[in-house]
């Protein structure tokens, strides 16, 4: 979570800088890519054979909805339909990575950044999410991770105060059946990393659904 720099005349509590969730390789040989915490479930053994059918857990899948198979390679603009469960909440959602753009770390000059974060490369990713299931997902995180050139997974950053360039917020407070939103997520890739793809992977034993495409240069 990113906190704004406190004014010199005001005493403010210092909040932690963006948490980068560094996981293993996405589809790599060591199978360490699990997205533990992305949906409230634990990873299974890395030695398990990847499955083409993503899990549905306790999510009710409508009869007229077809889920996207695990391992699908999509382009920016394509939509994946997945059963998304986090804790006791779950529904079927359509995820679309609309576009991605390289940003500049100076865009975050108003926020407290440690040395490692200042060496990261920020990316703004526009994502569309639609609830096509029967559950309520209000305030849940958008379940997408960035994949850098080292096959590292990075979760989106959050902010303590509004960041107008790219709000990077969870889903709206009310996000029930039929709800749809378009949002912008901020990813801080460590060591000036490059964005290679976006990934959805609920469990380590399942191949991820990935999106890739042209990443726009900074404005």
Short description:
This protein is an all-beta fold and 219 residues long. The chain has one helix spanning 115-118; strands at residues 73-75, 79-86, 89-102, 121-131, 145-148, 153-154, 180-189, 195-200, 209-212, 215-216.
Describe the structure.
With 219 residues, the chain is mainly beta. It has 1 helix and 10 strands; from the N terminus they run βββαβββββββ. The chain has one helix spanning 115-118, and strands at 73-75, 79-86, 89-102, 121-131, 145-148, 153-154, 180-189, 195-200, 209-212, 215-216. A 5-stranded mixed beta sheet has the order 1-9-8-5-6, with no helix packed on it. Strands 2, 3, 4, 7 and 10 form a 5-stranded mixed beta sheet that branches. The longest helix is centred in the middle third of the chain and has 4 residues, at 115-118. The protein is globular, with a radius of gyration of 17 Å.
Provide key terms for this protein.
five-stranded mixed β-sheet; 2% helix; 219 residues; 10 strands; mainly beta; 1 helix
Percentage beta strand: 25-35%
Taking pLDDT < 50 over at least 5 consecutive residues as the criterion, the unreliable ranges are: 7-51
- Indicate the percent of residues in helices: under 10%
Supply the number of helical segments. Answer: 1
Largest sheet: 5 strands, mixed
The helix/strand series, from N terminus to C terminus, equals EEEHEEEEEEE
Calculate Rg over CA atoms. Answer: 17 Å
Distance between the termini: 24 Å
Please provide the count of β strands.
10
Nearest-integer average pLDDT: 81
Helical/strand content category: mainly beta
Q: Spatial order of the strands in the main sheet?
A: 1-9-8-5-6
Shape: globular
């Amino acid at each position: 979570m990113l906190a704004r720099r406190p004014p010199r005349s005001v005493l403010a509590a210092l909040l932690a800088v963006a948490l980068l969730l560094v996981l293993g390789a996405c589809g790599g040989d060591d199978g360490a890519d699990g997205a533990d915490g992305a949906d409230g479930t634990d990873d299974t053994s890395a030695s398990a054979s990847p499955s083409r059918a993503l899990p549905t857990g306790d999510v009710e899948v409508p009869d007229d909805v077809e889920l996207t198979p695990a391992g699908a390679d999509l382009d920016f603009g394509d939509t994946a339909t997945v059963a998304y469960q986090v804790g006791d909440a779950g529904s079927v959602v359509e995820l679309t990575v609309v576009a991605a753009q390289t940003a500049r770390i100076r865009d975050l000059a108003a926020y407290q950044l440690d040395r490692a974060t200042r060496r990261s490369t920020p990316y703004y990713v526009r994502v569309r999410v639609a609830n096509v299931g029967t559950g309520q997902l209000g305030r849940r995180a958008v379940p997408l991770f960035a994949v850098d050139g080292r096959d590292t997974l990075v979760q989106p950053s959050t902010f303590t105060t509004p960041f107008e360039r790219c709000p990077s917020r969870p889903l709206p407070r009310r996000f029930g059946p039929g709800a749809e939103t378009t949002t912008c997520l901020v990813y801080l890739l460590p060591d000036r990393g490059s964005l290679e793809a976006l990934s959805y992977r609920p469990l380590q034993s399942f191949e991820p659904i990935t999106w890739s495409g042209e990443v726009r240069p900074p404005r």
